[in-house]
Amino acid sequence: MDVDLPYKLVPVAELQGHEDRAWHVAWNPKKPTLASCSADKTVRLYSYSSAPCSHSTNLDEANTSSHAHEHPLRFEHITTIPTGHAKTVRSVAWAPSGETLATASFDSNIGIWEKGEEEPDEDGATGDGEWECISTLEGHETECKSVAYSSTGTLLASCSRDKTVWIWEVHPDGEFETISVLMEHTQDVKCVGWHPTEEILASASYDDTIKLYIEDPSDDWFCFTTLTGHTSTVWSLAWSPAETGGYLASASDDKTVRIWRRIAEHKWECVLVLRGHERSIYSVSWSNGKQAEGSHALGWLASAGGDGNVLIWELSEPALEESSAIVKPPTHKLIANLKSAHGVHDVNSVVWCPRKGFEDLLATTGDDGYTRIWKIAPS
Amino acid sequence: MPAEIFNPNPVVFSTSKSGKKPDLSPHSLWINDDPENDENDADEVVEAIDQEEIFDLIRSIYDPEHPNTLEELRVVSAPQITLGQNHVKVEFTPTVPHCGMSTLIGLCIRVRLLRSLPERFKVDIFVKPGSHQSENAVNKQLNDKERVAAALENPVLLDTVEQCLVNAGARGNPI
């Protein structure tokens, strides 16, 4: 099935260093850095640039130029944050500002990290400041599994095996206020994700469902709909990018990815089931896609899991048929299939780079402890 | 250990002789540096690991609430093991349908295989269909890698697992 696919994933970098399973990776939305986390309780930070020589001199150029990586990209380890978490760091999330990093740990806490003031060294040059824990959010009773910032960065959501979803308000100076504790799921909550522009939160669970929440202006946050259809644990969620909007993808232990479409303000419906994985799907990520242009394009969807494979789907809006009231599914095409992305190991996360000019970059983490960077290219 | 005993009087069966020698060090839980399990030698590995080999790895695991092995209680048996090239499926039979120890037994089997088999093997563990009143719940939990990972970071639970695995290296031979 991997013959004649129009794209392939080309290896760009292989980032080793974690001493145990690498669970998750997050690209900084503003700067050329990324963070990975692991069962070894650390977070590793890397920088990348297309500079022909090493070090961070060209980062500004990389930030602004869409042609930045016509030179080969170089990835470099910046630092390792020991975190102090007593157990596995299960996931990481950047605030939209790119200045703050949140960690979710099996020790049931959430860590909030910022880089300290850069102190000039003896020569007057500014060195790298240390990453410091500016806040620890306690409240979950058992393993915290996922954490996510809202699009404006004013809200943080977290979830846990304790079946709850918490919403925290982000105040200045590392202060956080619990504004809601949602107890809708009947089992572990595996993943939380915010809509790219609106304050809608989605959560995925071991109870096989997805729940969507909004705030009642005169009252608390509440679950306005439950999406059912998956026949086992829902591991991961990905909203369609802001430019396309209106869709949510979910990945499950039932070996399918489901695409849900917003058919009314508060109504979502499953419009597509993607198959192709042979074991549990642990992660899904949705990007604009670099090549996909035109009003019908919905971008690229990447999925990965226990079979070790990474699948890339190209999605487009269905052609409009005015005579039909039935919601048609997006057209979909498998465009790339990378086998054994981490050798014999499970792939635990797959994440598209969100930064302009780098939309063709993809990061994966695996049970081998590696973070791997891939570039999608015509085959 | 829990106060409640789920099956106070289990039937204990006689065991068969293992054809294999016990691990040189019965307390070594990491045996996957065995040169014959070298990944580079894929053909040999496939030959080296069969149903009996997997059974040998798990037969001497102790039951969490009895001084007997899983083989003696007929919780595990060779015919309940299915092998693919890079895939092992182990089915086990709880001694009673309400056995609250089932997830722990399954966890012990998973940990033993995780530590013993070459990394290329994907392991699925299920209770025998119809043998447990919460069959789906037990199966789901045993095959959720995140729950397994978290369980093994729980010192009390890990200690219990280690107790059950203390003589697993005997591979059916008398200690």
Automatic annotation (TrEMBL), chain A:
Source organism, top-level taxon: Eukaryota
WD repeats: from-to residues: 15-56, 82-114, 137-178, 182-213, 227-260, 274-323
Segment forming the signal sequence: none
This protein's UniProt keywords: Repeat, WD repeat
Gene Ontology cellular-component annotations: cytosolic [4Fe-4S] assembly targeting complex
Pfam families recorded: WD40
GO biological process, one term: iron-sulfur cluster assembly
Described purpose of this protein according to its UniProt entry: Essential component of the cytosolic iron-sulfur (Fe/S) protein assembly machinery. Required for the maturation of extramitochondrial Fe/S proteins.
Family label: Belongs to the WD repeat CIA1 family.
PANTHER family: CYTOSOLIC IRON-SULFUR PROTEIN ASSEMBLY PROTEIN CIAO1-RELATED, WD40 PROTEIN CIAO1
The protein, known as: Probable cytosolic iron-sulfur protein assembly protein 1
Taxon lineage: Eukaryota, Fungi, Dikarya, Basidiomycota, Agaricomycotina
UniProtKB/TrEMBL annotation, chain B:
Record carries keyword Methyltransferase: no
GO cellular component: intracellular protein-containing complex; iron-sulfur cluster assembly complex
GO biological process: chromosome segregation; protein maturation
Keyword terms of this UniProt record: Chromosome partition
Region feature (Disordered): 1-40
Residue ranges constituting the MIP18 family-like domain according to the UniProt record: 52-124
UniProt similarity note: Belongs to the MIP18 family.
Name this protein carries in UniProt: MIP18 family-like domain-containing protein
Organism the protein comes from: Cyclocybe aegerita (Black poplar mushroom)
